[in-house]
Design goal:
This protein is of the alpha/beta class. Helix content is about 25%, strand content about 20%. The protein contains seven helices and 14 strands. Strands 3-2-1-4-9-6 form a six-stranded mixed β-sheet, with helices on both faces. A six-stranded mixed β-sheet has the order 5-10-7-8-14-11. Helix 2 links the parallel strand 2 and strand 3 (about 50-55). The radius of gyration is 18 Å and the shape is globular.
C-alpha cells in the first residue's frame, strides 16, 4: 500500500491552495493528493495539475458544511483501502513535523502504526502587522513567525482507522487520543492580512448568494458578513496577546489528554478547547517549512 494520501476541498482559495500544494504535493507527490474542486474553478484546476482533481457543481446551497463533510468522509473511507494513512482537512490547515524530530512528516507516517487517529496540536499562524511587513511570495513561515494556541484546530486529521469524522473535522469516533509531541496543525487563516481580506470577501459573497442567515446554514459564522467584524481590528488585537517566551507545547497536550472523553452520546470523542490569550514566536528551525 502507498503510505499517505492528502485530501482537501477548495473553492477559488488560490493563496492557500498554493501553500497546500507546496507542502503536500512536494512531500507526498501530486499523484497522492486529492482535491475536490467545488465549482470546477479553472484556476484550481490549473494550479493543481498533476493531482487527482474531483470537480463538483458550485451552485449555492444551504447546509454546505454537512454536504462537504459527507463527501470528504466517504472519500477518506475509500482511500483508506489504498493508503496506510489519509490526511483530510481544510485547504488552510497543514500538518507539519517539528524539524527537531530529525525527519519529515512523511518519515513519521512511514514509521507510524496503522489503526489510529492522530491529532496534531493546533497552532494558528498570526500576522503581526505591527512588526511583520514582509510580503509573502513563497514560504509563509519565516515572514510569519508568531502563533497562538488554537485548540479548535487540534483536529484528528490523520486517519488510518475505520472511523467517521464529524462536520468541521473536529471530532472522530476514535476512543483513544494520539497527539505526538512533534506534530502540529498550522491554521493559516490569519497568516496574512491581505490574503485574509480577499478570502473573507469571497466567503461573504458565497453566503450572500445562498440567502441564508447565520442560524439557518450549517457553516461557520465567519462566512457571514454580519459576523465578520472589522478586519484591521482583528489583526491589531494580536499584538495584545501575552507573549510566552519558551516554545513548549507539552502542557497544552497534557490538557488535551486529561480532558479527553465521550462527546455525550453522539459516538464521538473530544477534549476541552479553552480560549488561550497567549502567543509564541516559532523557533527559527520552522522557517520555510510551509
Amino acid at each position: 500500500m502507498q503510505t499517505v494520501a492528502a485530501v482537501t476541498m477548495v473553492r477559488d482559495d488560490a493563496f492557500f491552495l498554493k501553500a497546500w500544494l507546496r507542502h503536500y504535493g512536494e512531500m507526498f507527490g501530486r499523484e497522492n493528493c486529492y482535491i475536490v474542486n467545488h465549482g470546477r474553478g479553472s484556476e484550481v484546476a490549473t494550479l493543481a495539475e498533476g493531482c487527482n482533481i474531483i470537480g463538483i457543481p458550485g451552485d449555492p446551497h444551504k447546509n454546505f458544511d454537512i454536504k462537504r463533510w459527507g463527501l470528504l468522509n466517504n472519500l477518506m473511507g475509500g482511500l483508506r483501502r489504498y493508503y496506510r494513512h489519509v490526511i483530510v482537512g481544510d485547504v488552510d490547515e497543514l500538518v507539519v513535523r517539528d524539524p527537531d524530530a530529525g525527519g519529515s512528516l512523511l518519515d513519521f507516517l512511514e514509521a507510524a502504526p496503522e489503526g489510529r487517529v492522530v491529532t496534531p496540536l493546533g497552532l494558528e499562524v498570526i500576522h503581526r502587522i505591527d512588526i511583520e511587513d514582509q510580503v509573502i511570495e513563497d514560504a509563509i513561515l519565516g515572514p510569519r513567525r508568531h502563533v497562538r494556541p488554537a485548540p479548535h484546530y487540534s483536529k484528528p486529521c490523520i486517519i488510518s482507522a475505520p472511523v467517521k469524522i464529524a462536520r468541521g473535522g473536529h471530532f472522530t469516533q476514535s476512543d483513544k487520543l494520539f497527539t505526538p509531541d512533534d506534530l502540529y496543525l498550522m491554521h493559516l487563516k490569519f497568516c496574512d492580512f491581505g490574503a485574509y481580506v480577499g478570502v473573507m470577501d469571497h466567503r461573504n459573497q458565497v453566503t450572500a448568494d445562498v440567502q441564508a442567515g447565520v442560524k439557518d446554514a450549517a457553516i461557520g459564522r465567519h462566512w457571514f458578513a454580519e459576523a465578520r467584524g472589522e478586519d484591521r481590528a482583528v489583526f491589531d488585537a494580536f499584538a495584545e496577546l501575552e507573549m510566552v517566551e519558551e516554545f513548549d507545547m507539552r502542557p497544552l497536550r497534557r490538557k488535551m489528554q486529561r480532558s479527553f472523553k465521550p462527546r455525550g452520546d453522539t459516538g464521538y470523542y473530544h477534549f476541552d478547547r479553552p480560549h488561550y490569550t497567549t502567543q509564541y514566536v516559532l523557533p527559527e528551525r520552522f522557517n520555510g517549512l510551509i
